[in-house]
Specification:
156 residues, alpha/beta, Rossmann fold, 40% helix, globular, binds 4-nitrophenyl phosphate
């Protein structure tokens, strides 16, 4: 059975589109399906931020076909894993959860690198291009671990 993974941030134009593109590049599309969404509705239908598009291009990833959409409660039924970028996203997604099963799917993405430390992927929207490079590196490291877990190379 295919595993469906959702990446979530606030706007769905900076961090989660990068996480989506990076995890897709590390997994077999026949086995793993990856999508992204924002907790907010500010950028529904929009392309990723040009700074995310640029940093992805530097690493040979094309994320230009992605379009922003808002997280909805139905996403709990479609996805087995919901990775959020920061503790605000975590609180917003958990607030929509209907039961423990929904809640069990939600995880801070940097838990994969720093378990139990509650580390956020910083929101780079108001900052400089350097922030996007930093975000890319964090997400690349986390997605490497996630990809290996999904492909059964290390125990969950
Ligand atoms: P993201 O960054 O959550 O990584 O997509 C943001 C993009 C836009 C806004 C906030 C964060 N905004 O307020 O418009």
């Amino acid at each position: 059975m295919k595993t469906n993974v959702l990446m979530v941030c606030l706007g769905n134009i900076c961090r989660s589109p990068l996480a989506e593109g990076i995890l897709k590049s590390k997994t077999d599309p026949k086995k793993v399906s990856v999508d992204s969404a924002g907790t907010g509705d500010y950028h529904v239908g929009h392309q990723p931020d040009p700074r995310s598009i640029d940093i992805a291009k530097t690493y040979n990833l094309d994320i230009t076909s992605q379009r922003g959409r808002q997280f909805s409660v139905q996403d709990f039924d479609k996805f087995q894993h919901i990775y959020v970028m920061d503790t605000f996203n975590y609180a917003d997604v958990i607030a929509l959860a209907r039961n423990d099963k929904d809640r069990s799917k939600v995880k801070l993405i940097l838990e994969e690198i720093f378990p139990g430390e509650n580390v956020d992927v910083p929101d780079p929207y108001q900052g400089l291009a350097e922030g996007f490079k930093n975000v890319y590196k964090m997400l690349d490291e986390a997605c490497e671990i996630i990809a290996k877990k999904l492909e059964g190379k290390t125990p969950e």
